[in-house]
Structure formats: structure tokens, C-alpha cells
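Notes from the 1:1 (GR / supervisor)

We went over the backlog. Supervisor wanted to see one worked example end to end before approving the batch request, so GR pasted a single chain during the call. The sequence is below; no edits were made to it. Supervisor asked that the structure be written out right there so they could see what the output format looks like.
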Amino acid sequence: MPLILKEKYEEDCVFGIWEITEDYNTLYSMVHLYPGEKDRLDGFKSEDRKIEFLSVRVLLKNLAGDTIGPIVYSDKRKPFLHQSKLRISISHSKNLTAIMLSEKKKIGLDLEFMSHKISDIEDRFINEDEVIIREPGRRKYHLYIHWCAKEALYKICDKQDISFKKNLTIEPFEPEDFGVVYGWVDNKYWHDKFKLNYFTINNYVVVYCCKSS
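Structure output shown during the call:
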């Protein structure tokens, strides 16, 4: 069972990462799916998408137990746990799946495998107030921290009317193996500052945030 990380953060935030090494049948045998979830799983054409879907349910079971209800989605694709006070944030990239849960706090989480494609879209999400280092060996990593931080902010703010470039700004920082960054959300719903934690695991960047409601 490749639960490679399970930690409690601050007051009631639980965070976990699952490394997908199992095949479809193995993952399917590890979870109970509610009728709507089974229909959703059967609707996926890609085997990889089905495995990703099941990995989320397996990790959720490991973090919250067997009795947790199904995951449902808003019209903006924000996940919720049906008939539960727990908030959930989910991220998946390549072979890793991550989940954060909290009952009392707003949460946002993102993880990304670091490919070389990030520089191709830099102009779409980095604004003039943000600083990216020039050193080629670390520039890609710096960009990925920014991207993941903005994804986490996007999720924590319920995906409401947010442009990554116009409405989200990450304060300047020097990238380390792990650390803290501060980000601002500024739109018609929010004008607030957030503290985000980041770290690397293998060739992945993970950024997460918990904030009092």
C-alpha cells in the first residue's frame, strides 16, 4: 500500500499522498463505490483516468475511514464530500495523488510533476509584480512553485472569477527544497493574503494552504 505521506497540519488539516503502483483491479478491490461514483467510473474511456479516479477514493479511505460519503462536484468542478462537514482538496499528477481534508478551515492543494513544458506557458500566469530567478537550473522549479501556489489559491477561493495572471500574485521568494510563500488574491470576491507551504518529492512540487474561514 503506497501511502507515502500522511500528516496532520495545524489544527485539523490532514494531508496525504498516494503513489499509484497498482493496476485497475487491485485499486477497485480496495474501495467501496457509491452508485453515482460507479456510474462516473464506468463513464471514463481511459484506463489511466479510471485508475486516477480509484486512487483518489483509496487515499480518501486511508485518510478519513470507511464510512466517508461520496465525492460530488459543484458546477465549477469543486469537490465536496456528500453530507459531511469535511472540506476536501484533491490533486493528481502522473503517478501521485494528493488529498487534503479539514473541517474548520478553507483548504487548497496542488501537486505537479515537473516537466519542461512550464516555460511555454509562463506568460499566461506570471504577472509584472512577480519575480522569477534567471538561473536555468532552478528557473523551472521556481515557475512550478508559482503555478502550484496559484492552483492552490484558485481552489481555496472556490474557483470564483479568478485569472491566474491578473488576480493572483505570489510575493518574491528564493526557492528551496521546502518552505513558505505568500500569495495575494485580488478580485471582486477577495482581497486577502495567504500563507502557502511547499515542498518537493521526487520530481514533483506540492503546495498547500489552510486558512481560517
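Supervisor's comment: Residues 110-212 form one domain.
Batch request approved.
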